[in-house]
């Protein structure tokens, strides 16, 4: 272990500082498709009883009208975060009628592209902007790819922890700049080691054959309706034969916040010839927000993002430039189809130890060679992570995945112990042991367990529908208490009122609004 990591661990292990580690915040966003009782994509509108997808703080839609997104508040204990997520699921099920929430990340058997409904957010300018952005995504990447669901894990360390370490290290930058630099360093380490998360938690080794839409691919047939790769962990995170040529040259550098925000601002302001050819509008109708590499910064697909809570009307990148990084959003986690929530406390506890390791360990700048190796390692593991003797690249040398994984888990162990010390019990240590078992025995990984189920003679869709029905029963058997239900219903009603007010007080025309929104990111930072 490095001297720097040792010093940081020793400092946080002091009795006065230990409580800081129980002030980390955790939030979860879980996406899932609504399907009918037969496992077909639900073509019904977003249920009004769930509230407004535009203004509800906890229940919205992602790409499609059928793709729900549940958002928890940020809590100091992931157990509370998961309890929040469970309540949102129970409320949703109380309003879904016969519909189900699809259990895995890869979608159900999808109808043709034209039939997949794009999410609608009403007639306000911001609602229209969200709709046109999604029209642009359909145009650029197809609707099928947008129906994949995942789990986003939001994590922050308390500002007092950063201040403590900044003081100890004699760093003279502003508190904001130091904190941002440390989060960016966390992200660099995440890029180095996130292949491990794909091995441990990847849960999408197979998919419905129709998903490929007849495109060429390297997948194998498991049965007449299912495609897979025998050693895959997460086909969701692989290229699947779909690649964004526009984004191919866009590799935001995570060596500092400014270079990251600059590269995204540039992409949002740089025309991309094939999109220019299509145009932003046709016969007066909007087709996409603009003809640039990215319509907005969130179009950049990445496994992890630096984030800052935005003010009303503020863009994510403006918030980062003005006030620095506040938390990170991990975006590469598959939904585990064996778990009602798609994630459990063991996974969350391990993620905390892993992210804390990324935050506290040395994080040299990524040179271009290492940057490519990080990407290659990640893509190798999503497609072949369970292959016996699989080799990854470390410092330009081949290393066996299992050996590197063991070393990493050993390096993460003191972080798990420190978290247990701060919170009591041994939950983080136990979570680490559960991951060690998966490294020793690949059949314990979620991806291997999914394949084991499919090899019993059921297609991907049959397996997923059965899991969805099992989870629906779990949520419906334990409805919310009357008081909790009333609270959710009040939130839904309030969100519908907020949307109505927005629409009633709209000023100016949408074209002017869209132009101002576009210009806002290109303006100089505050």
TrEMBL record:
Cellular component terms per the entry's GO annotation: cytosol
Keyword line: ATP-binding, Glutathione biosynthesis, Ligase, Nucleotide-binding
Limits of the Glutamate--cysteine ligase domain: 10-381
Superkingdom to which the source organism belongs: Bacteria
Name this protein carries in UniProt: Glutamate--cysteine ligase
EC number: 6.3.2.2
Catalyzed reactions: L-cysteine + L-glutamate + ATP = gamma-L-glutamyl-L-cysteine + ADP + phosphate + H(+)
Family listed: Belongs to the glutamate--cysteine ligase type 1 family. Type 1 subfamily.
Pfam families recorded: Glu_cys_ligase (PF04262)
InterPro entries: Gln_synth/guanido_kin_cat_dom (IPR014746), Glu_cys_ligase (IPR007370), Glut_cys_ligase (IPR006334)
Pathway as given in its UniProt record: Sulfur metabolism; glutathione biosynthesis; glutathione from L-cysteine and L-glutamate: step 1/2
GO aspect biological process, one term: glutathione biosynthetic process
GO molecular function annotation: ATP binding; glutamate-cysteine ligase activity; metal ion binding
């Amino acid at each position: 272990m490095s001297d720097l990591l040792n010093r940081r661990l020793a400092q946080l292990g002091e009795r006065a500082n230990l409580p800081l580690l129980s002030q980390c915040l955790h939030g979860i966003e879980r996406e899932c498709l609504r399907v009918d009782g037969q496992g077909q994509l639900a073509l019904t509108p977003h249920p009004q009883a769930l509230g407004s997808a535009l203004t509800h703080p906890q229940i919205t839609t992602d790409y499609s009208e059928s793709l729900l997104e549940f958002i928890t508040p940020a809590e100091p204990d992931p157990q509370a975060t998961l309890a929040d997520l469970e309540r949102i699921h129970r409320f949703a099920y109380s309003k879904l009628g016969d519909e189900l929430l699809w259990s895995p990340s890869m979608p159900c058997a999808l109808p043709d592209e034209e039939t997949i409904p794009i999410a609608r957010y009403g007639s306000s300018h911001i609602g229209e902007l969200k709709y046109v952005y999604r029209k642009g995504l359909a145009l650029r990447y197809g609707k099928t790819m947008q129906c994949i669901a995942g789990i986003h894990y939001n994590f922050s360390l308390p500002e007092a922890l950063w201040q403590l370490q900044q003081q100890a290290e004699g760093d003279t930058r502003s508190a904001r700049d130091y904190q941002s630099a440390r989060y960016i360093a966390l992200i660099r380490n995440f890029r180095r080691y996130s292949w491990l998360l794909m091995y441990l938690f990847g849960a999408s080794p197979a998919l419905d054959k129709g998903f490929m839409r007849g495109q060429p691919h390297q997948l194998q047939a498991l049965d007449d309706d299912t495609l897979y790769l025998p050693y895959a962990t997460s086909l969701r995170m692989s290229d699947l034969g779909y690649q964004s040529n526009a984004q191919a040259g866009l590799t935001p550098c995570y060596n500092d916040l400014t270079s990251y925000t600059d590269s995204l601002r540039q992409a949002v302001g740089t025309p991309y010839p094939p999109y220019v050819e299509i145009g932003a509008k046709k016969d007066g109708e909007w087709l996409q927000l603009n003809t640039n590499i990215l319509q907005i910064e969130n179009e950049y697909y990445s496994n992890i993002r630096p984030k800052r809570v935005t003010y009303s009307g503020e863009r994510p990148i403006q918030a980062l430039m003005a006030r620095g990084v506040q938390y990170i959003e991990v975006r590469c986690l598959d939904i585990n189809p064996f778990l009602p929530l798609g994630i459990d406390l063991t996974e969350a506890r391990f993620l905390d130890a892993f992210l804390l390791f990324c935050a506290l360990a040395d994080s040299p700048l990524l040179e271009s060679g290492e940057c490519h190796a990080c990407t290659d390692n990640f893509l190798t593991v999503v497609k072949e992570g369970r292959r016996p003797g699989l080799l990854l690249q470390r410092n330009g040398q081949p290393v066996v995945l299992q050996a590197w994984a063991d070393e990493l888990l050993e390096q993460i162990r003191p972080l798990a112990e420190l978290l247990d010390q701060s919170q009591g019990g041994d939950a983080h240590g136990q979570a680490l042991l559960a991951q060690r078992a998966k490294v020793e025995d690949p059949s314990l990984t979620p991806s291997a367990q999914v394949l084991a189920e499919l090899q019993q003679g059921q297609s991907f869709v049959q397996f997923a529908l059965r899991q969805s029905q099992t989870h629906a029963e779990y949520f419906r058997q334990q409805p919310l208490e009357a008081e909790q239900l009333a609270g959710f219903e009040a939130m839904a009603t309030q969100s519908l009122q907020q949307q109505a007010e927005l629409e009633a007080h709209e000023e100016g025309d949408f074209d002017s609004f869209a132009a101002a929104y576009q210009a806002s990111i290109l303006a100089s930072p505050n």
